[in-house]
Amino acid sequence: xxxxxxxxxxxxxxxxxxxxxxxxxxxxxxxxxxxxxxxxxxxxxxxxxxxxxxxxxxxxxxxxxxxxxxxxxxxxxxxxxxxxxxxxxxxxxxxxxxxxxxxxxxxxxxxxxxxxxxxxxxxxxxxxxxxxxxxxxxxxxxxxxxxxxxxxxxxxxxxxxxxxxxxxxx
Amino acid sequence: xxxxxxxxxxxxxxxxxxxxxxxxxxxxxxxxxxxxxxxxxxxxxxxxxxxxxxxxxxxxxxxxxxxxxxxxxxxxxxxxxxxxxxxxxxxxxxxxxxxxxxxxxxxxxxxxxxxxxxxxxxxxxxxxxxxxxxxxxxxxxxxxxxxxxxxxxxxxxxxxxxxxxxxxxxxxxxxxxxxxxxxxxxxxxxxxxxxxxxxxxxxxxxxxxxxxxxxxxxxxxxxxxxxxxxxxxxxxxxxxxxxxxxxxxxxxxxxxxxxxxxxxxxxxxxxxxxxxxxxxxxxxxxxxxxxxxxxxxxxxxxxxxxxxxxxxxxxxxxxxxxxxxxxxxxxxxxxxxxxxxxxxxxxxxxxxxxxxxxxxxxxxxxxxxxxxxxxxxxxxxxxxxxxxxxxxxxxxxxxxxxxxxxxxxxxxxxxxxxxxxxxxxxxxxxxxxxxxxxxxxxxxxxxxxxxxxxxxxxxxxxxxxxxxxxxxxxxxxxxxxxxxxxxxxxxxxxxxxxxxx
Lengths: 170, 501
Fold this sequence. Notes:
The structure holds 2 protein chains of 2 kinds. In chain A, 71% of the residues lie in helices and 2% in strands. Chain A is mainly alpha-helical. Chain A has a two-stranded antiparallel sheet. The longest helix of chain A has 38 residues, at 88-125. Chain B is mainly alpha-helical. Chain B has a two-stranded antiparallel ribbon with strand order 1-2. The mean pLDDT of chain B is 84.
């Protein structure tokens, strides 16, 4: 009795792979668009290999969709019993901050946009409460890291980092 | 030979070798700064030095940079250099479970062993080995790339179809931009952002590092598991594991040397092929990808062995085996050296002193690498998340930008990173995508050129399947694919026999 109970407890529940099917459908669509693009190419050297790859991508995506429709393949994720749920908002904001800083670089330059992104990400990644000392220390580290890397890349490695068209430093 | 060894052991050469190893290791550990960049940036320093000292320093920078790539791969899941791609497969899981210190020490020992074996081949077998490089035609490169792609089966995390889809997606990404042979612009859909193609290092940073950042920022708590006790270098434990895996180290180093000899192949392919072989030869394959020390050993020994291997065609034929070799070749020309088959006889003192210098630099990598590795590990576990996340994010942006001084690469890196995180949630591992991206260009070039040659000589089948080296690689591919089935059959038969008895 006990054995059967423990067996049923450890039994892994399987569900249909809806996420996989969606991804496979998007790959199928991507393959179709790319395949159409290859019809515009005239040189066989340009389209021979990509067509082979696209055919493989589409065939495999189709196979994944068919398999997932007829068979449940992925284990149901167990809900976490302890710890906080991951924050989707922070995830989105992280990507947005990095993307935003990159978009701003041609206008405000590397130094300003990178410092802004650094501070934004620092606030995003900090879970413990801020104290005055911590805020001061972290701000100092942020400026030191950005300025330090700026110096190393622009002066030592001679990498021309983006200058802002709106704000320029002498 | 003894006089050359003594020349390599002068205080100046020793100092330059140490400085080169340290500088290379530090540069290589920063995501986005490759070994090529490390050598290229520091090459002007060597112009005023005596030629042997200059060569020793450049070799030391190169070997240090290849090893340095392992730190970020192990501690941040971001290959510091493309050579360390396969180091992430087991290095990062080791760090996640609290064995990051052990992984760093193992990587250091493996890099030293690989570097020494590569230098040994360079010292003793350079002229015959250079002939092997010449025997590799487009068909062989195509099959070699395909051999690398068989690793997808191992990296698919339980779903082969998803792994293969990821591999095809990576191959398709490799086709973006100008075509390998014809030069046509493909799959840019009118956008100027992608005309230059997808830069491999930026893509690697995106596919591996951005998902880690996305997950890091989402939850409180530490980045890596660490036990309370200080366990030092864990050198004794690492040496024991290294001794147990001596055949793995030897095999991977030999693979690394041979792949290094092939112009254009490089450390990333050496690491992937040796990882695949280490996994195939292992009794328990299920541990790979979940923090198997053998995975780290295989990759790190192979990528450092490419340093010695790459110098074989560079010094004997004047054909650079790897991109950093091309920079070093340029430096040799600046110093007025004539590279070619007779270099080992006419300028033997320079060549042999350099090779001994490479041995010394590799040996110096052990103390220097262990020390830097220890502090890198301590730094990563000590830095609070509020500083670690923005610092790593900042390094990904500046690293992706600095490769081609192009903001488009940063956008592509971020888009691929977000995509990789989403795909990973639905069971599509990033490793097959990376594999396709890296091997795509070599595979396409090899395929198209072989096809063209085969069509022109009216011997298409013979050109692809009839050459001895091609046949050997095809045999390895078939063996690699069928090995799990054969091994299963053998196990079943043994079990049946035991049951009958």
